[in-house]
Amino acid sequence: MSHTIMPVRLGQKLTGQVIDVLYNGFGVVMLNDYSIHMANAFPDETVTFEITQVNRKFARAEVIDVVDPSPDRLEAGKDYLLDVGIAPYINLRYEAQLKLKQFQVEKFYAAAGIDANIAPTIGMENPTHYRNKTVVPIKRDGDKLVTGFIKRRTPGEILPLSDYYVNDPVIDQTIGTVRDILNAHHISVFSDETQQGEMRYIMVRRGYYSHELMVVLVAQTATIKDEMAIANEIAAIVPGIRSVVLNHNPRALHLLMSGDNRTLWGADAIHDTLLGIEFEIGPNSFYQVNPQTTEVLYALAARKAELKPTDTVIDAYSGIGTIGLTVASQVKQVLGVEVIERAVIDAQKNVMNNQVKNATFITADAPAQMHRWQQEGLHANVIFVDPPRRGLTNELLDAVTEMRPDRFVYVSCNPATMARDAKYLIEQGFHIKGDVQPLDQFPQTAHVEVVTVFEPNN
Questions:
Q1: Active site annotated at which positions (predicted)?
Q2: Residue 330: which of 303, 351, 354, 348 has the closest Cα?
Q3: Binding residues
Q4: Is 205 contained in some domain?
Q5: pLDDT range class, residue 156, cuts 50, 70, 90
Q6: 180 and 253 belong to one structural domain
Q7: Which of 157, 262, 326, 346 is a good FRET partner for 140, with 20 to 30 A between their CA atoms?
Q8: DSSP strand E in 22-167: where?
């Protein structure tokens, strides 16, 4: 019986030069044709590392010494954030983070065979403590509850945290307060091993402008012990609290949160504003996590769309209406389509609350609805999309190419799938108009937002 001989072995210590950084934030060292991936390793650095995982395609390693550091390296003193993967670029100067993200977008477009100009990444003035939402796991450690993040390579172990570095500090404080209240009531935590226990996660979201705050207790069970007393104690202590919700989310669903919510105290939702439009935000609402750069992002997308007062705009994957409602005042009409009914209900509330007269949101499959609109003779001057990380489906891309809008504005949180979709659109008779614009929606992490505008040829 033959055995594959691996080029490295577990526990082996090696030294090499970092030749690349992957989009997941891991630096790459090559050993002949075999790649070794590791966190906290940046381009052109020489590092000593220890092999921690081996397979046929690549190995993973931990950096144990930086022999020749990059001039862009800094020591932030927060390597615990590397242990949980919250901030893989914590030890890289912010200007270098922006350049690296621009380079990564360039690589994806080049790999797709697309000749495009990738503009410098737009950054933040203060690239820390920006997130308006977080979901954290909870675990019992002896006689106390702990909150934090799951350590890399050890799925059952939570590293206790009080400063998550990327969250609004009030959110971090609230997590600790809620955890301590749950602990005082001796609330049990669900265990995968025993399949017993109540609590699984704590979710907190906070309005950037409104300062309204929502706490969601994510539980394995439909009820938790002392739930009303717990909700009232949270309401009495947490500044800005407007809503305490219990989310029933059995482990078998394999979700961070389900759609099964029950308000224990206060309102069912909180509110915040974006480019002057007020939005109602429920426990499950998709709302960009960095409100400061989201305003820059949507204003940029609107500007690149070259909107006109006579335009008909389609907002596909419209969610609670964030893009459509923020451009409605600049165009003739906005038509939003979203398959998730509760998101459309929220969008319709946002239309009414803001007294917007020229925006309509409907529940439907976006490609099918766009085909119906086309059959009815509707011409869309501009179509906006802001899809999840998996990008656009072929059905949606085909619907766009059939409608042939004057401008197609693609907002993406994953440049790999965006470049894939861009290639498809170009093959179907579209071209990229202007620069491809990266924007740092997620500082200290490996992720980047990108805006690209497409026009039909001729």
A1: 413 (nucleophile), 413
A2: 303
A3: 288, 317, 338, 386
A4: yes
A5: confident
A6: yes
A7: 262
A8: 27-31, 34-38, 46-54, 58-68, 133-141, 144-150, 158-160
pLDDT digits (tens, 9 = 90+) for 82-124: 999 999 999 999 999 999 999 999 999 999 999 999 999 999 9
Question: 258 and 165 in one domain?
Answer: yes
Contacts with 408 (C-beta within 8 Å, 6 or more apart), sequence order: 382, 383, 385, 400, 425, 430, 453, 454, 455
Q: Tokens 């020229």 sit at which residue?
A: 358
Distance CA 71, CA 101 (A): 17
- Position 95 in a domain: no
- Please tell me the predicted confidence (pLDDT) of residue 353: 96
User: In the listed set 274, 300, 315, which residue is the last one of a domain according to the structure?
Assistant: 274
In terms of domains, do 232 and 315 share one? no
Whether residues 404 and 323 share a domain: the answer is yes
- Burial zone of 315 (CB within 10 Å; 0-12 exposed, 13-18 middle, 19+ buried): buried
Q: Is 413 a catalytic residue?
A: yes
Q: pLDDT digits over 372-407, tens only?
A: 999 999 999 999 999 999 999 999 999 999 999 999
Q: Are residues 316 and 213 in the same domain?
A: no
Whether residue 65 sits in one domain with residue 158: no
Q: What is the mean pLDDT of residues 64-92?
A: 95
SS3 426: helix
**Residues tagged in the binding site annotation for S-adenosyl-L-methionine:** 288, 317, 338, 386
Quickly tell me which residue has 């899809």 as its tokens: 387
Find the catalytic residue in 413, 432, 448, 451.
Answer: 413
pLDDT digit string, tens, across residues 185-207: 999 999 988 999 999 999 999 99
The three-class DSSP label of residue 403 is helix
